[in-house]
Amino acid sequence: MTLVQLEYLVAVDTHRHFATAAEHCFVTQPTLSMQLQKLEEELGVQVFDRSRVPVRPTELGKDIIAQARVVLAESKKIQEMVQNQQQELSGELRIGVIPTLAPYLIPLFVTSFLEKHPQVRVVVQELLTDQIVEKLNHELLDVGLLVTPLDNKSIKELPLFYEAFVAYINPKHPLAQHPRIEAGQLDMSELWVLNEGHCFRSQVLNICNRGGGGGSDSSGHLDYKSGSLETLKRIVESQHGLTLLPELSVLEMPEEKQKLVHPFEEPQPLREVSLVVHRSFLKKKLIEALRQEIIDSVPDAIKLRKKEQVVAVK
């Protein structure tokens, strides 16, 4: 049994396809298949059920693959010990970030981070929360930037800051006359929200439910399903009604649009933004540098805020 064979084993489990796994491992499919067959012969068990499409591990195979991931992670720690002695950070850092954070948070820190660490290659993927967690578990990402808590035992959450929700209200709406609003004033029939699958949608609905806001989550005769906060902003500006937005998304707005932004009365509803890693994560020094850079880049008004009323994701 070799580490290379274990890498092939994990690759097939991750991609559930022999050709894709071989491509990921930079070998030919016959080479990968031959090595896995040798491993199965040595163990005397069948790790994968090749009769199913996509290929899946057998029940015993699941346990073997889980242990293989542990062995590979421990072996990589030896390389990391050597790298941590180097003065300059290097390597690839794969980051998954949710869509309601990506366009507002990434520009705040990525330039300064790369300037400080020119030997680091940063790869950013915009994904939903469940996708990020899955990729962390399959070692396809090193770190995630998302909203917590998630109550998932396979990951570790490192809170970064607490971001307030604000209302974005059409000037003709009655609530536009209020400098600050309360959750109880929200009417779901006038509220534009994101598609199903976005944790931000769940949080918005939770805010409305806590405030006792009634109605259904649709606005007039237009039924628009959006995955973009920027689209919701444009709809509010051009149509009617209101939407809720995260604080970072309104910081750079021009002055005329800032008039549409209405904070909540204290205590404001907040969301906890965290850096999330797998429980047995690697690249600790690199990820700590990323964590510190993000905290340093966030505006002081957000950075100094303490956990108050974090809205549950689910």
UniProtKB/TrEMBL annotation:
Residues 1-58 form the HTH lysR-type domain. Coiled coil: none annotated. The keyword Transcription applies. InterPro entries: LysR_HTH_N, LysR_subst-bd, WH-like_DNA-bd_sf, WH_DNA-bd_sf. Keywords: Activator, DNA-binding, Transcription, Transcription regulation. Pfam families: HTH_1 (PF00126), LysR_substrate (PF03466). GO terms for molecular function: DNA binding; DNA-binding transcription factor activity. It comes from the Bacteria. One of its GO terms (cellular component) is protein-DNA complex. CDD domains: PBP2_OxyR. Belongs to the LysR transcriptional regulatory family. This is DNA-binding transcriptional regulator OxyR. It comes from Pontibacter actiniarum. The lineage of its organism: Bacteria, Pseudomonadati, Bacteroidota, Cytophagia, Cytophagales.
